Amino acid sequence: MTHAARFHGVSQVFGDFTAVDNIDLDIPDGKLTTLLGPSGCGKTTSLRMLAGYLAPTRGTISIAGVDSTRTPPERRNLGMVFQSYALFPHMSVADNVGFGLKMRRVPAADRARRVTESLELVGLAHLSASKPKKLSGGQQQRVALARAIAIRPKLLLLDEPLSNLDARLRIQMRAEIRRIQAETGLAVVLVTHDQDEALEMSDEMVLMKDGRIQQQGTPQAVFPAPANRFVAEFLGYENFLTDAGGATTTIRPEHLALSVSERTPAAETGAVLPGVVLDVAYRGVDVLVTVASADVSGARVELLADLRAESAPDLTPGADVWVHVPATHLVPLAAD
Amino acid sequence: MRTRHPIAASLAVGGYVVMLVPILFVVVTAFTAGSTLRFPPDGFSLRWFEAALTYEPFTSSLLSSLMLAAISAVLALALGVPVALAVHRGALPGRSVVEGLFLSPLIVPELVVGLALYQQLMVGFGLDNFQTLLLGHTVLMFPYAVRVTGASLALIDPAVEDAARGLGASPGRTFLSVTLPLLRPGLFSAALLSFITSFNNVPLSLLLQSRDFRTLPVVMLDYVQQNYDPIVAAISVLILAGTVLVAVIAERTVGFARVFGGINR
Amino acid sequence: MRGRTALLVLPGLAILLVAFLIPSIAMLFSPPGISPGEVFARLGRMLTDPYDQAIVVRTLGLGLIVTVVCIGLGYPIAYLLSRSTSRWAGVLLALAIFPLLLSSVVRTFGWLVVLGSQGAIPQLLLTLGLVDSAPQLLYTPLAIVLGLTQIFLPLAVVASYSALAQVDAGLDEAARGLGANRTRTFWSVVVPLSGPGVVVAATLVFAGAVTAYTTPYLLGGSRQRMLSTQLYTYSSTTIDWAAASATALIMTVLVFAVSGLSSLAARRGATS
């Protein structure tokens, strides 16, 4: 596998705060990589170091095999889309998209052609004369994408590109960005705090916390097998149990089953724990039931079960239930 | 305007009377045909305007004032805008101290600054009065240059400048093609404010006058003290007209209340 | 990076030092031909001399009165304008700001026309038969108060307006909805929330009033001497550098003390 970019032992220290702590990271060529994590995990700082806006305190960053640690942003040839879009408010859409080409002294005729191409790619060729202020958030987002792509960058960097859009537009733009990635064949690095976005869009996902990489891999590899409790919680695992050996395991809410008697439903291999219903939340398709229970080590736990609405037993808070924990879905976790 | 606040409304009316009515009396008096500041005026004529425009001390000091205001406003911006950039964008150690220093001419009484410059630079150091005036007015305009352009700079998303860099623009090119155009309203506001403040200044210019170079307000002050005729009313009306013109320009461009009151409506 | 940033600041800083900071400090210690320490000795004598004391007291007293009058008239203007939905509010606000742009010589000259012995008010009083001869209104404390109020009222309006505009009008409505009447709402919601802004406005007016020159010079003359007119006399008529520097020091200390007190008040207001 070839690499579009490579972090080697990179740290970023602000005063006594370590934003990025000695990370090694390979960004694969021609794929979409997401940096995923809660705010303050170091994902945006990493992106800004890759783009050249921040010099690493330690370590090296190479782009397309060339050490670029000290290269200023204007000589890295990377396309960046900012969270605020950062369109130039005093220039038309076409001038925004053509700005990078002008800096590269591309002749006017070529420039016009490439601006149109880029705007066509995002479906906005008809708005080339407008000022950014006149556009909707989604349209501004597309102009920012077109502007970044027009310079034919080595990498496309997207900093939380969807966080300022409303929910429906966000879903739509996920597919749009995938399509553009596929059509251009660019390596894309996308920073996000939204695990659904990362799962849906990534070829490769990198989970970060406290400036360190927690886990890296394809969504298909990471999701069923979170490496530690942080990754599990971040990906929506709610239930944490200590097994007989004292190790922590986790299981997703939809894999728990509840019954009013111990033997139904037919038990798979695994544990059956007694508990008391604390809360029942009806959500149309499914029902979320919170149960106070104790795991095999005897520790008190609260478990969340996500049941299909049509097959859920009729439960009210205070009812005694049995929680079925199938062994096949239990995921062992490493210590954090 | 009907009001549900009768007490506040009558105080407000009183306030407007004190602020504006004396100015109206100046305007009326300027058109008198008589030769004193008598009220009501004796008939209508434009003779005092003619007198004001042909009175050499007024015309030469008007030119001096305009020149001084223009040069010192340009100097203050040329020196102050880089400071605003350093404070808001650069890696400046002790940036609040630096900003405070450049705002400090606003706190020290202008008459005191005038005395300090007169005593130390003119009498003590032997600078001529135009050089001293220029230095003094420039320093007096620093707070406007630094604060007004700084406020305008703070409204520009730094990501816009980052974006230009990422697209291949050098820091200098980024400043010229992105920062400067976005800063234009702030620069314009600061320039107008500086110009007006310098043009109207008395306390600083007072001690720094010489026979060769005096500003209009200082000449008017001297004239009023010695003569009691409507020529000053006429020159006042001309200044009023010029000031209205500046206000209209401000309103048409950046917004009058925003430039001169710091108010965004 | 750091080096380049310093280069941006240096030219301005050099001018600031040469044309402001160094002369201001040197003025206290070495006026031309004066031995160091002379300024402070002179200051000590001035503070015990009844003539100079009277000037300080007059300056402080008139400054205080002007401050109270400016806030008393300016705050209501700002309040009504900030709460008005009328399309005239913008025009009235502009009319209150406009005098800030107009030369203080022009504005003060207006009072000569109004208050002078042949001016509007004395002539009106004569015509109405209320007085036998034109009363002396110029060169009185009243003339100075009127003149300074005209000069600094726009400042009070602008500063109060900025403070009031930040008080959400929704809070007025919330208080009314909770049963407070108009007066109660004003005193228990609007005034406390705009208070710090009013302190700033009062400080600006006071600092301006005790250091203004044009108005005391034209309307007070030599009969109503204030610190500023006295400073000018010392430095251009009698050329008494020590006295001029000492007067400048008194003025500066006054202004700094009031600014310091007001920012202290603002900080205490913010924490309580």
UniProtKB/TrEMBL annotation, chain A:
<dbReference type="InterPro" id="IPR027417">
    <property type="entry name" value="P-loop_NTPase"/>
</dbReference>
<dbReference type="InterPro" id="IPR050093">
    <property type="entry name" value="ABC_SmlMolc_Importer"/>
</dbReference>
<dbReference type="InterPro" id="IPR003593">
    <property type="entry name" value="AAA+_ATPase"/>
</dbReference>
<dbReference type="Pfam" id="PF08402">
    <property type="entry name" value="TOBE_2"/>
</dbReference>
<dbReference type="GO" id="GO:0005524">
    <property type="term" value="F:ATP binding"/>
</dbReference>
<feature type="domain" description="ABC transporter">
    <location>
        <begin position="5"/>
        <end position="235"/>
    </location>
</feature>
<dbReference type="InterPro" id="IPR008995">
    <property type="entry name" value="Mo/tungstate-bd_C_term_dom"/>
</dbReference>
<dbReference type="InterPro" id="IPR013611">
    <property type="entry name" value="Transp-assoc_OB_typ2"/>
</dbReference>
<keyword id="KW-0813">Transport</keyword>
<dbReference type="InterPro" id="IPR003439">
    <property type="entry name" value="ABC_transporter-like_ATP-bd"/>
</dbReference>
<dbReference type="InterPro" id="IPR017871">
    <property type="entry name" value="ABC_transporter-like_CS"/>
</dbReference>
<keyword id="KW-0067">ATP-binding</keyword>
<dbReference type="Pfam" id="PF00005">
    <property type="entry name" value="ABC_tran"/>
</dbReference>
<keyword id="KW-0547">Nucleotide-binding</keyword>
<protein>
    <submittedName>
        <fullName>ABC transporter ATP-binding protein</fullName>
    </submittedName>
</protein>
From TrEMBL, chain B:
<feature type="transmembrane region" description="Helical">
    <location>
        <begin position="130"/>
        <end position="146"/>
    </location>
</feature>
<feature type="transmembrane region" description="Helical">
    <location>
        <begin position="62"/>
        <end position="85"/>
    </location>
</feature>
<feature type="transmembrane region" description="Helical">
    <location>
        <begin position="97"/>
        <end position="118"/>
    </location>
</feature>
<dbReference type="Pfam" id="PF00528">
    <property type="entry name" value="BPD_transp_1"/>
</dbReference>
<keyword id="KW-0997">Cell inner membrane</keyword>
<dbReference type="InterPro" id="IPR035906">
    <property type="entry name" value="MetI-like_sf"/>
</dbReference>
<keyword id="KW-0812">Transmembrane</keyword>
<feature type="transmembrane region" description="Helical">
    <location>
        <begin position="7"/>
        <end position="31"/>
    </location>
</feature>
<feature type="domain" description="ABC transmembrane type-1">
    <location>
        <begin position="62"/>
        <end position="250"/>
    </location>
</feature>
<comment type="similarity">
    <text>Belongs to the binding-protein-dependent transport system permease family.</text>
</comment>
<dbReference type="InterPro" id="IPR000515">
    <property type="entry name" value="MetI-like"/>
</dbReference>
<keyword id="KW-1003">Cell membrane</keyword>
<keyword id="KW-1133">Transmembrane helix</keyword>
<keyword id="KW-0813">Transport</keyword>
<protein>
    <submittedName>
        <fullName>ABC transporter permease</fullName>
    </submittedName>
</protein>
Automatic annotation (TrEMBL), chain C:
<dbReference type="InterPro" id="IPR035906">
    <property type="entry name" value="MetI-like_sf"/>
</dbReference>
<keyword id="KW-1133">Transmembrane helix</keyword>
<feature type="transmembrane region" description="Helical">
    <location>
        <begin position="60"/>
        <end position="81"/>
    </location>
</feature>
<keyword id="KW-1003">Cell membrane</keyword>
<dbReference type="InterPro" id="IPR000515">
    <property type="entry name" value="MetI-like"/>
</dbReference>
<keyword id="KW-0813">Transport</keyword>
<feature type="transmembrane region" description="Helical">
    <location>
        <begin position="138"/>
        <end position="161"/>
    </location>
</feature>
<dbReference type="Pfam" id="PF00528">
    <property type="entry name" value="BPD_transp_1"/>
</dbReference>
<feature type="transmembrane region" description="Helical">
    <location>
        <begin position="88"/>
        <end position="106"/>
    </location>
</feature>
<feature type="domain" description="ABC transmembrane type-1">
    <location>
        <begin position="56"/>
        <end position="262"/>
    </location>
</feature>
<keyword id="KW-0812">Transmembrane</keyword>
<protein>
    <submittedName>
        <fullName>ABC transporter permease</fullName>
    </submittedName>
</protein>
<comment type="similarity">
    <text>Belongs to the binding-protein-dependent transport system permease family. CysTW subfamily.</text>
</comment>
<feature type="transmembrane region" description="Helical">
    <location>
        <begin position="241"/>
        <end position="266"/>
    </location>
</feature>
<keyword id="KW-0472">Membrane</keyword>
